[in-house]
Amino acid sequence: MTDSNTGNNAQSSPNPPGGGPTYQDWRQQRWEWRQKMREARHSRPFHGLFPGLVLVLLGGLFLAGQQNWITADAWWQWLLIGLGAIFIISGLVQYHAPEFHHSRRHRFVWGAVLIALGTVFLLGFSHWWPAVLIGAGVAIILGGLW
């Protein structure tokens, strides 16, 4: 089918018949969206901090176990303490990034809870179980306030 005015083929037109965006417009929009996503991904401060610190912690625990610095039955207590410290470090780093203000609070609470649990289990649970109940109650209260 040819257009009688121009002699062009009507089916090869880049514009859809409904008046939607052209192929070039669509490609430009997609390129802009991808560029925006790249910039957002690179603008996050220390976006690999948490997984990197977890790997360092695991490597340190395995090294400490190989060197007999910690006993085989105490590694998980040190893991809890280390994970709690990582949560707090990650929360402190994110404290300075304005786009993360909504998600930093729970990291401090969970970090403190994990450190407390690891310490309680390391020192002996039978003497410290009331402190665990108190700490859990405080964590719930603080979590509800924020």
Layout: helices, strands, pairs:
Elements: H1 23-43, H2 49-66, H3 75-95, H4 105-123, H5 125-145
Helix pairs in contact: 2-3, 3-4, 4-5
Would you mind describing this structure in some detail?
The structure is a single chain. By secondary structure, the chain is mostly helical. The protein is 68% helix and 0% strand. The protein contains five helices and no strands. Helix 4 runs antiparallel to helix 5 (125-145). Residues 9-13 have low confidence and may be disordered.
Quick recap:
Residues 9-13 have low confidence and may be disordered. The protein has helices spanning 23-43, 49-66, 75-95, 105-123, 125-145. It is 68% helix and 0% strand.
Kindly report the average pLDDT value. 76
Distance between the termini: 67 Å
Strand content: under 5%
Counting DSSP E segments of at least 2 residues, the number of strands comes to: 0
**Unreliably modeled segments:** 9-13
Rounded radius of gyration (Å): 28 Å
Structural domain tally: 2
Order of helices and strands: HHHHH
- Derived from helix and strand composition plus strand pairing, the structural class reads mainly alpha
Percent range of helical residues: 55-70%
| Global shape | elongated
The largest sheet is: none
Number of helices: 5
Core attributes:
single chain, mainly alpha, 5 helices, 68% helix, 0% strand
